[in-house]
Hints:
Order of helices and strands: EEEEEEEEHHEHHEHEHEHEEHEEEHHHHH
Number of helices: 13
Structural class: alpha/beta
Largest sheet: 6 strands, mixed
Mean pLDDT: 96
Shape: globular
CATH superfamily of the largest domain: NADH-ubiquinone oxidoreductase 51kDa subunit
Number of strands: 17
Helix content: 25-40%
Strand content: 15-25%
Radius of gyration: 21 Å
Number of domains: 3
CATH architecture of the largest domain: 3-Layer(aba) Sandwich
Amino acid sequence: xxxxFPKGGVHPPENxxxxxxxxxxxxxxxxxxxxxxQHIGAPATILVAKGDKVKVGQLIAQSSGFVSANIHSSxxxxxxxxxxxxxxxxxxxTAITITVEGDEWEESIDRSKDLNKTISLSAEEIIKKISAxxxxxxxxxxxxxxxxxxxxxxxxxxxLIINGVECEPYLTSDHRLMLEKGHELMVGIQILMxxxxxDKAFIGIENNKPDAIAHLQSLETExxxxxxxxxxxxxxxxxxxxxxxxxxxxxxxxxxxxxDIGAVVHNVGTAFAVYEAVQKNKPLFERVVTVTGKExxxxxxxxxxxxxxxxxxxxxxxxxxxxxxxxVNGGPMMGKALSDTNVPVTKGTSGVIVFKxxxxxxxxxxxxxxxxxxxxxxxxxLEPFLLIxxxxxxxxxxxxxxxxxxxxxxxxxxxxxxANLPLxxxxxxxKGEVGKIIRARKN
Length: 443
């Protein structure tokens, strides 16, 4: 019996169109715009000025607090401007725009393809290196990785869980990483284990990726303490709390964190970035991005420099089909539609999906029939039909009581609603307002 989480979940069509497309390097753009806030926490402080020459891997913005992340140049060239540009949310954010001139890297970066399995740094040195390299969670949350590895007093990490689930339909970047960078991934996991002082780690992978499961299982004997765990295909299996429950049968309490039950979770992309940072002295300035869609000429998985316009990725995948109706940043369940495809790739950009017109339109809303399908689908045990009504009525005290902050915004409720209600839209709205109230109360 394959492991899974007990509450809720849905089974959207997988549409892993690009799963068999090997990772390829996207050609350098003529210009990049690197946001100084592409992580959870405080924006980084800019260190360069207009007209400065920069190299690939050079620190150009420094973290401005514990919960923040360094930003490095992804290209070599001249700083053109330090202005606000539109990001994927449609808002303007401060960015460092660089005109690309060649591809000159910092000399300290080891650009060889040789595998380095010898881990020489201590736990403290590893965490400092990860912080200096600007590594954040690459599964989409972009939480600074050094913060997760800095265990609070009174807590103890017991197990490391690596998220290789990639349960979002369409996305395949993690799948390809597991197939093509297995050894590097395993060394990265060992580095994280040393940083946490734990002796066991699990790689959770859904059973729809049998090739990745088999490949990493074949490497287990070379890397003691690491075990691959096949999981049942069910969305959102890759949710942090769901993954922990599936693998360890431990449950993160409401309002709590994984470390409260001894668990730390990192994405496979993050583990690979840790390998490159610690073993190759390479900061996080590029990542693998899936570019896909049913009508796209060449669905692909690209290694992309941070700051590259998303339009460049779509062009490399064959350009816009004639009947394009919507472009989504991220997966179809949790991603958000883009208003402009010239927005830059960030550390959190896992995928870009091009939908045709007929798949882009929302269906007409009906009346809630109290069928409770949304309740059955919710992996957090919430009542979405109630939360939407409370959000519409701005009843924020009651929303907090009904645990709206536990919502992981997976979209399972909206996916199965026979009335086509925009459940997640209103829940996000209410959650945002309740979050503001809670933060104001703490200050």
